[in-house]
Amino acid sequence: MSEAPTIRTNKIHWPILAGLSIAKLLIHFSTNTNYGLHRDEYLYLTQAEHLSWGYMEVPPMIAVIGKLSRLLFGETVFGARFFPALIGAVSILLIGFMVRDMGGKKWAQLLAGTAFLFSPAYLGSNTLFQPVSFNQFCWLLAAFFTVRIIRYGDPKYWYFLGIAAGVGFLTKYSIAFFFLALIIGFLISPHRQVFRTRYPWISLGVALLIALPNLYWQYDLDFPVVRHMQELSSTQLKNVSPLNFLVPQLLFHAAGSLVWIAGLAFLLRSEALRPYRLLGWTFIALITILLLLSGKDYYSIGAYSMLFAAGGIAWERWLGWRSALLIPIIILLNMPVIPYALPVLSIEKMKSYVTHMKDQYGLEAPLRWEDGSIRELPQDYADMHGWEEIPEKVARFYHSLPPEEQAGLMIVAGHYGQAGVMNFYRQKYDLPETYSLNSSFIMWAPERVEFDRIIQIDDVPQSASPYFESIQLIDSIESPYARDPGLIYYETRPKIDVSAGWKTLVENRREEAGY
C-alpha cells in the first residue's frame, strides 16, 4: 500500500458540526409525527416482535432497532422514527471528521454538513423507520474508514471496515453493491497493491463472520432473498429505465448537487485529493453496476455523503471562506423541493402544492410511483395515510360481537401493511393477533387455528368466498389520501372445514415461499 499522504491534521470545528447535528434532530423531531407510519414501517416494527437472523425481505438489523425503539418509546410514531433521525445527526459528525481527515478545514466542514442537512434525499431517508437510513450510514462509515486507511495507514481501520461491511450486510443486502464498487475503486487506483497484504483479507473474514448467522439462515431457507429480488425484478425493477435512473441522481439533493458534483470532479482531477481518488472511481463503478442491474434510482443515495465531504473541500480550495456563500443558495433553492421529502405541509396543502409544481414547472419525477405512473401525491406520502382507520374500524365491529362469536373469529389481512398496522395497534384496540400469508408474515402464521368465521382485510373487492357462505362488507378506509381501500369483510357460515383449509393454505404458501 502506498505511504499515507503527508497532510497536516486540521481540527474539528465542533460548534459547526454540533450545531448542524442538533438542527438535523430538531427538524425531524418537529415533523416526523405530521403524517402516520408508512406501510413498510409497520412491517419492520412487526419484525421487532419476531426477532430472527433474517426475514423474507431484509436482514435482521432493522428488527433489532425496532425492538429497542418499542421498548423505549412504546407504539408511537415519534419512537419509531427516533433512531433514523439520530443516525442522520451522527452522519453529519462523521462527514465532518471525514472532511478533516482529507484535509478540509472549517468552511469545508460547514459546507459539506449543510449540504447533507438540507438534502431532500437524506431528509426523506432519516424520516422513515426503514433499513435505508442505517444502510446509508454504513456506506458512509465504510467510506470514512477507507479514508482513514489511506490517511493514517493504520491496519486497525481495516478491521473497522470489515465490521462496517458485516453490520451493513445485516442491515441491507445492497451494501454488497457498494463494496463491489469499492473493490473496483481500489483496483483502478495505485492502492491496489494493498491486496498483496493480509489486511483486506482479514477485513473480509471479519465481515463474513458477522454476516454468517444471516448467511446460514438464508442457506437453510434456500435463499429467500434471491426469490425476493426475482419478484422485485418482475414487478418493480422492470419499470426502471436508464433515464428514469439517472435523472433522479441530479434531483435527489437539488442544489446540493453543486457540492457533490464538485466533489466527484475534485476527486478525479485534483492533486490535493489524489490519494482518495478511488472514492471517485467507486462512485462511478456503483452507478454503472446499478444501471446494468436495473436498480432503483434511490439505491445509490448512500454514496453521496462521501462526495459531499470531497465537495466541501473542493469549494474551500477554490473559494476559501467565500465557499460559505453557497450555503444560502443551497437552502433557498432546496426549499421548493424539501416538502417532497419532509412532511412539513399538511397533506391537503401538499396535494395542492405538488399539483401546482407539476402544472407550472413540470415537476413530475417525485410523483412517479413504482409502477411507472404519475399520481397526485408522492407514493411514500400516500403510504402514510389511512392505516389506523383499519384497526379502529375492525375493533368497533369486533367489540360489537357477542363473546361466543369473538371466540371463534380469526382476523386475516391480505398484505403486510394491513397485518402490520393491525398488530402494531393490537393492544390499543384490544384485538387478537392478525395473521397474513404475505411477506414475512408467512413465517409467523400458526398452522392450527380453531375458528368458524373471519374478519378479512383486503384491497380486492370480494362478492363471494370459496370458504364461507356469507360475506359482508363492514367498512373501508375513508381517507382520500390513502393508497389502498382497506376493505373489511366479515365472513361466516363455513362451506368446508375452514381450520383444516387454513392449515393446508399455510403449508402450501410456505412451500411456495421456500420456508
TrEMBL record:
Cellular compartment(s): Cell membrane
GO molecular function, one term: pentosyltransferase activity
Predominant localisation class: membrane
Sequence ranges assigned to domain Glycosyltransferase RgtA/B/C/D-like in this UniProt record: 58-217
Membrane topology reported for the UniProt record: Multi-pass membrane protein
One biological process term in Gene Ontology: lipopolysaccharide biosynthetic process
Cellular component aspect of the GO annotation: plasma membrane
Residue intervals passing through the bilayer: 12-30, 80-100, 132-151, 157-187, 199-219, 250-268, 275-292, 298-315, 324-342
This protein's name: Glycosyltransferase RgtA/B/C/D-like domain-containing protein
Organism name: Flavilitoribacter nigricans (strain ATCC 23147 / DSM 23189 / NBRC 102662 / NCIMB 1420 / SS-2) (Lewinella nigricans)
Lineage: Bacteria, Pseudomonadati, Bacteroidota, Saprospiria, Saprospirales
